[in-house]
Amino acid sequence: MEFEEVIGNAKWAILESLSRGERAASEIAEETGASIANVSQQAKLLEAYGLIAAAKGEPPKGGAGKPKRNYVLAKELAFVAAVRKGFAGKRTLKMDELHAAVLNVWFYERQEEHYFLQKLLWQQEDLVKECLSLAVIDANAKELHLLVVAEQEKLDDLRRRFSKIGVRGPDGKEKSVISWTHSPEELEEGLAIHDAYFTKLLAHPHIIIDRKGALRQFIR
Asked: How far is CA 137 from the centre of its chain?
C-alpha cells in the first residue's frame, strides 16, 4: 500500500486518531463517528501493511472477559506532494528527527516565520541539541517567542545563552527570538497550582521538537 492511498478516507481517520496516542477500536470509533466494526476492519488492513500495531503489554479486558486490543502507530511517515513551474513530484518519507522538525516548521500557520525557524534550527545547534522540546508560543513582526523544555541542570546555561537572540531575515532585518526555558518539573508544578504564567505558556504551543513527549504530556 502506498501511503497516499490512506489519505482522505477511513484509514486516515484512524491514523489521525492514533497520532494522539494509544487507542482501542471503540475509542477510535467514538472519535471518528465510524462504527466499531468498520474501524476494526480498517485497522486490520493498516496493521497488515505495517502502519499500525497492537500496543505492547497486557491488553485491558473487554466485554465478557475478552481482551480489548489497543493500537499504536507503527511508523512515522510523511507524504509530500509539490507542483510548481517546471516540477511536479510526490514521495513518501520515513520520518527522522530532522524531517519531523522541518515539517513541524512548515505546518506552523504563520508562513512568514518559517524562514526564521528553519534558520534557528541550523544556526543554534547547541540549543537544538540540549533541549528536550522546542515550541512556538507567539509571534509578531518583531519577535518570535519560544518555549524551551530542558533538563534541570541545563536551565541556567540555556537561559544565559538563548533567552534573547537575533535571527536575520532574507531582507536583512533582524527578528528577536525570545526563549522561555523551563524543566518538565517546573511545568508540572506550575500547572498543578494553576499558575497563570505556565497556563498561558502551555495554552497553544506549536511543537517543533519534542523528544520523548517531554512537552506533549502537558498539553490537554
From this structure: 14
Helices (H), 82-192: 97-106, 114-123, 125-130, 155-162, 184-192
Rounded Cα gap, residues 196 and 81, in angstroms: 41
Whole-number pLDDT of residue 63: 54
Provide the terminal-to-terminal Cα distance of the chain, rounded to the nearest Å. 33
Q: Is residue 14 part of a domain?
A: yes
Of the pLDDT bands very low, low, confident and very high (cuts 50, 70, 90), residue 60 is: low
Q: How many CB atoms lie within 10 A of CB 75?
A: 14
190-216 burial, b at 16+ Cβ within 10 Å, e below that, comes to beeeeeeebeebbeebbbbbbeeebbe
Q: How far apart are CA 1 and CA 123, in angstroms?
A: 38
Nearest partner of 181 among 203, 154, 216, judged by Cα: 154
Number of domains in the chain: 2
- Other beta carbons within 10 angstroms of residue 114's beta carbon come to 14
**Which of these, 162, 147, 159, lies nearest to 202 by C-alpha position?**
147
In angstroms, how far is CA 155 from the centroid of its own chain? 23
Q: Read off the C-alpha cell for 77.
A: 511517515
| pLDDT value at residue 62 | 54
Of the candidates 122, 125, 106, which has an alpha carbon nearest to the alpha carbon of residue 114?
A: 106
Shared domain check, 199 and 158:
yes
Pairwise CA distance, residues 138 & 201, whole Å: 9
- Average pLDDT of 27-56? 92
Q: Does residue 121 sit in the same domain as residue 213?
A: yes
Instruction: Let me know: does 175 contact 169? Beta carbons within 8 Å.
Output: yes
Q: Does the model's pTM come out above 0.90?
A: no
